[in-house]
Specification:
Elements: E1 5-7, E2 13-15, H1 22-33, E3 39-46, E4 51-58, H2 64-77, E5 86-90, H3 101-106, E6 111-116, E7 121-129, E8 133-143, E9 150-160, E10 164-169
Parallel strand pairs: 4-5
Antiparallel strand pairs: 1-2, 3-4, 6-7, 6-10, 7-8, 8-9
Length: 173
């Protein structure tokens, strides 16, 4: 391998001038993730200060060792001698909105607070997920059928992904 080149998993030489190219970094992340099929990419961002932030998640969470493994995999294939960069491999913060449908599957039977695009909020237990929708089991206060006052009723609320502004797992203590 010549100076100014890096090599990907298949042994293909990649010019180092492309080290900050998002496609190249994305390919390296994909290669690293392919070694553990329970992990998936949530977000990849390249900042102007040459900081690469890779956010991953997993069906059963992400062990620290996996973040380290992925970080090392990427670092071994990018040439710091040619272009300096900082690399951060993280997992989503519990307070961050869900970004990928696989995160919804991971949080089945947990309480979500969903903000809709019309700015209304819906809260409930995530009970079902399809390709287009989620179903939340929510407790709603409704007027009594007879007499004054209200009663609590459990309703299933179906929400289309296209109507979701963001969804956050509610932390329960």
């Amino acid at each position: 391998m010549e100076f100014g080149e890096t090599e990907n998993l298949e042994g293909t030489r990649v010019p180092s001038s492309y080290t900050m190219n998002k496609q190249v970094v994305n390919q390296l992340v994909s290669e690293a993730l392919s070694e553990n099929n329970s992990l998936f990419l949530i977000d990849l961002s390249l900042h102007q200060d040459n900081k690469i932030v890779v956010q991953i998640d997993g069906k059963l969470g992400v062990p620290l060792q996996e973040c380290i493994r992925i970080s090392r995999y990427i670092e071994q294939r990018l040439d710091k001698e040619v272009e300096d960069y900082a690399l951060e491999v993280t997992t989503p913060d519990i307070a961050e909105p869900l970004k990928d449908i696989r995160q919804y599957h991971k949080n089945l039977q947990r309480t979500l607070v969903v903000t809709l695009k019309d700015k209304n909020k819906v809260e409930g237990i995530l009970t079902q997920i399809t390709e287009q929708t989620i179903v939340l089991e929510s407790k709603v206060r409704e007027p009594k059928p007879i007499g004054k006052g209200k009663i609590t009723v459990i309703k299933n609320i179906e929400v289309a992904f296209e109507n979701i502004e963001n969804a956050i797992v509610k932390i329960m203590f």
